[in-house]
Each structure stands twice: as structure tokens, then as C-alpha cells.
Amino acid sequence: MNAAQLNQALRDPAVRTIALDADHRVLDGLDLDAVRADPKPIIGAGATTFVHMELWRECGLAGYHGEGAIPPGPRRLTGQTWVTGRAEGVLLGGSLGPLRAMIGAGLPSLDGAILLLTGERTQGLGQVDRQLTHLIRAGAFAGVRAVAVGLFTGFDGLVDRDWTLTDVLTDHLCALGVPVLADLPIGAGHPPVPIGLPAVLDATGATLSID
């Protein structure tokens, strides 16, 4: 979907949700006035993170990270505890690659947020390592209250110099000093979950609850 098609959907009062597969190229042409006048959630994963973060920063619009129909009611997901603890905050984030690409180009502040991270394999573990290193060194994760790690598809069985995906992620994320809950069923190919809404991450109890 290009910017013109997206804007047409944003302006159409008959459209109530938008399932989107779009990237950074649509950002500069977004009709933000239409979003503010008639907010409607956008559903998508992967590169749709660009749009989710832009609309959160500019309009405070919540979206849905994932694919398919929006499940009814509140969400309570179970994961694997990496660092114990409990935190409350707005769930923000999405796919790792787009988040890293938005540094210096409109990435909203994550201060006070519960950070959501998912990913899809485009290259190797070295790229994941570089993306996380860049985000952390740029201060993008400053003030994050907890980390919710969703699915990183395509990395099963991949080993690079004796490191697995879990090794790379835990090396960076467990050093942040906040609760970390991993293996959550969030990401491409899974039902969408709300982002931009209040959430409670209880890593000790291994649950993420989104209001």
C-alpha cells in the first residue's frame, strides 16, 4: 500500500481498521489531520512498525502488531522469564530493524514504556547484534521500564561463532537492568496485539497483560 492508498483509507469514514503492509516510504505523505479527525487502528508487523511509531509520536494513535483479525477483549500472554520483576507502562515498539532505522528519523521516546521487540530474519545474527548495539548506544532504550520479547522468525537452529539468537538477545537485553519476558506469541504470522496502550509486564509471573 502506498501513501495515496493509505490516505484514502484514513479519510474514508466507512473504514474502521486498516491491515497494512507498508514501510518508511509512506511516512512523509501521511495525512495526519485525517488520523486526528477519525482515529482508526492499523494492523501489521514487520515494516509496519515505521507507521505505528510515526502515528504514535505524531497523534498518539494506538495500533496492533501482528497479522489477522483483532481478538476481542483484553490480552494476557505468557512467556519465558529472562529477568524477574514487574513493571507498568505503555507497550511500544515492534520489529527490531525498523526501530533501529528510525534513530534520528522520528523514533519516539521510549522513556517509561514497556519495550516490545520482534524480528524476522533478513540476514544473520550479526545484524541483530548490530541493531541492538546501535539502539542502546544511541540511548533509544533509556528509561525503558521492561522488555517484552516476541518472536524472531527464521532463526531456528542458526548459530554464529557458537552464539544463538537467544545468546545475542540476552547479552544485550538482560544488561538493561529491567524485567525481561521472552518467547511471547507476538509478531508476524500471529494474532495482533495492541501497542500504544497501558500494559503490565510481570516477568516473575511470566505474563504480559495489555489493557
TrEMBL record:
Residues covered by the LD-carboxypeptidase N-terminal domain: 3-66
Organism whose genome encodes this protein: Phytohabitans aurantiacus
Top-level division of the source organism's lineage: Bacteria
Domain LD-carboxypeptidase C-terminal: 88-198
This protein's UniProt keywords: Carboxypeptidase, Hydrolase, Protease, Serine protease
Keyword match Translocase: no
Name of the protein: LD-carboxypeptidase
Gene3D superfamilies: Class I glutamine amidotransferase-like (3.40.50.10740), LD-carboxypeptidase A C-terminal domain-like (3.50.30.60)
Family the UniProt entry places it in: Belongs to the peptidase S66 family.
